[in-house]
Amino acid sequence: MDFPTVFHNICSLLRYEASAPMLFSSGLFWALFLVFLPVYALLKKRLWQMLTFVVAFSLYFYYKSSGVFFILLICTSLLDWTLSRLLAVLTVKWQRKMCVWISVIASLGILGYFKYANFFLWNWNAMVEGNFQPLDIILPVGISFYTFQSISYIVDVYKGRVAPTETWLEYIFFLSFFPALVAGPIVRADYFIPQIRQNNRATRDEVYAGLWLVILGVVKKALIADYIAQYNDLIFMQPTGYSGFESLMGVIGYTMQIYCDFSGYSDMAIGIALIMGFKLSLNFDFPYKSQNLTEFWRRWHISLSSWLRDYVYIPLGGNRKGTFRTYLNNFLTMLVGGLWHGAAWKFVFWGAMHGAGLAVHKASKPLLSRLPDNRAIRAVSWTVTMIYVSLLWVFFRADSWTDSWLIIRNIFTNFSPAHIIPFVEVRYVWLIMMTVIIAAHCMPRRIYDRLAVWFVSTPWPVKLLVFIVAVQLVIQFMSEEVAPFIYFQF
Amino acid sequence: MKHEYIGLWSLLTVALAIFIGFSCLEPVTLAGVELKSSGIADRLTRPVSEQENSSDAPAAQPEVQKVATDTASKNILLIGDSMLEGINPRLAAYARENGHTLNSVIWYSSTTAYWGNCDTLRVFLRQFKPDYIFISLGANELFVKDIIEKREGCLKYFLEQIGDIPYLWIGPPNWKKDTGINEMIARNVKPGCYFKSDGMHFDRTKDGAHPTHASAAQWVDSIARWMPLHSSHPIKMNTPTMAKSRPASVTVLQPLKQPLPMRH
């Protein structure tokens, strides 16, 4: 073995590379976690040493994903913490308000510059027909998540819901906690900060329950989502190249893909935090079981929807200012939620349509409550909700309005059952994956709980085997190309 | 280390050791399925020289004398394998910008053996009547052993079908060292008709093979920069204002379920 080469390669793996952020599903993360874990275990009961070590690891984790932007994270945390300490000593109302505004404007200003500057310039250019040169801006990974955490912290301190952390170290530990840093869940200060001082050691059962969540997450994200994405990408890249049936499969596929992708990553984050002895709140609760949009948003990306409820909807007036304002507040909140997902009109449209859907559902509640609560009604409710949610995912995913409409039109105007058999013949692996994840989604929660209990109580060699099989499946399918279709034009 | 973490740590360590060990072995087959390796050993021991790719295309063939650009609008046919998915949108933007018409035929998983063992190309030449052809083929043949012996006949027949129509062969974007496909193409095509992509840096999609959309767009940009200087028949390829567009038509062909009889 050529040790200088191996050393060079390890160093290059550890350096920041924009195209290779560190993900929980990557081998590099787990190799580093192997080094992290024993040190963390040794320092666990020495609070300040443990905090320093985890913060250093989190900042390295962020550096590996976003390069020098970890400095921005440090600056944000310093500003927030200083202002929160000021809030603790100030008693004059306008001065306290000023502290909150400075923090919120700074956080939103940074987010606005990195995420939305080009979007606004592009729109301004379109209005004035100017000569637009996009700014050379790189979006720091996870900025949307930690900005929302920072806002919620300062607002909660102002409202007295949470006491400001005594040290900056505790605050940056909360803001940069690596399991939730780049893709959530959005951690709330009132839930998380008390856990820092409690510094509870994870029990053996919690450690393995965490590992079980990680395995579930890896299977969802790196195996299922990444595999089915290959076919879905074909449909969204060439909307005119496929039949209506294939487009429909692509839309259903993307509906499941985005769920597996996002909830899988959340599962891994929650699992890693649990291994470390920290509890993060549930982020996805079988959202596609929802029978209406209101329920969907109680189950989908729960940490975001509850954040939007507490820091946008309620401050706007919530449901306290009459029926029309309630609907309007719902709509505006979802508009913000849409824009949070990305700087493009398609996300605004997606959010607006969800807002409109929520308003329509609220408005029709008196009518709906008169309907009998039986299976047929529930089935119709579920179908209508799922069609609406899935169609809106098309706008969320497609590159342009034209592509979105082409796909939807294709489903309704170019649908032929003749394409079903060849599709099944060629895409049987994709279909198996889809069947597995849909069946898994339909299972009741108690089955998952039982599986988790089984995994925790199973002997060590079985756990090892389960882990190895899951990882090998990911490797096996990672480079497996989805068989492309099959569309005869002559 | 506290006992609650010892079990987890040893589990992860044993798993890592198994995957590293497995990646050092020859491929293992289990119940007829080849178990893929994590590639950890390869990633750690790969010589530095193999990783340092240049970001633009190296010269592949003897230099041709610079030729004046043909500024007429062209009826372009783009044919090849799944790499076309990345090339299509950007090349379509070039076509629109420069007044060309682009028709595209994607034959998934296709190789020189596919195209060189049938008359499919003739069908499309009759259908689209192109006066310029882009070919992107070879990515599915990077690791074919004895490729020259097996595929050169097919390649020659494929080129024979093209005849005198000016063309440019876009070489496969290697993600590993090939067994001779690039050399075979380079020595059979006319001078100035081969853009060697091997040696360029690509950001890849999750499958590790296909360039990402952004990377594929840069690939096409590199080709457009290369053409006026090195192509034997450069056509107008001014940089488009729009990032991507849509070809006039996209024809998609399925992979073959059975191999065609070979032409030697």
> What is the name of the CATH class of the largest domain in chain B?
Alpha Beta
Largest beta-sheet characterization of chain B: 6 strands, parallel
> Which descriptor suits the 3D outline of chain B?
elongated
What is the correct CATH architecture of the largest domain in chain B? 3-Layer(aba) Sandwich
Low-confidence stretches of chain B: 52-59
Tell me the CATH topology of the largest domain in chain B: Rossmann fold
- Estimate what percentage of residues of chain A fall within beta strands: under 5%
Radius of gyration of chain A: 24 Å
SSE string of chain A, helix = H, strand = E?
Answer: HHHHHHHHHHHHHHHHHHHHHH
Q: Indicate the mean pLDDT of chain A.
A: 88
Please name the two chains that share the biggest interface, counting residues whose Cβ lies under 8 Å from a Cβ on the partner chain.
Answer: A-B, 61 and 52 residues
The Cα radius of gyration of chain B reads 21 Å
Total helical segments of chain B: 9
Which secondary structure elements does this structure contain, and how are they paired or packed?
The complex is a heterodimer of chains A (490) and B (264).
Chain A: H1 3-14, H2 27-43, H3 47-66, H4 70-89, H5 93-128, H6 143-159, H7 168-176, H8 178-181, H9 189-198, H10 204-237, H11 244-275, H12 293-299, H13 302-316, H14 323-341, H15 345-363, H16 365-368, H17 375-397, H18 401-413, H19 420-426, H20 428-442, H21 445-457, H22 460-478
Helix pairs in contact in A: 2-3, 3-7, 4-5, 4-6, 4-7, 5-6, 7-9, 10-11, 10-20, 10-21, 10-22, 11-17, 11-18, 13-14, 14-15, 15-17, 17-18
Chain B: H1 3-24, E1 28-30, E2 33-35, H2 40-45, H3 48-51, E3 75-80, H4 84-98, E4 101-107, H5 112-115, H6 120-128, E5 132-136, H7 147-162, E6 167-170, H8 181-188, E7 194-195, H9 213-230, E8 249-253
Parallel strand pairs in B: 3-4, 3-5, 4-8, 5-6, 6-7
Antiparallel strand pairs in B: 1-2
Helix pairs in contact in B: 4-9, 7-8
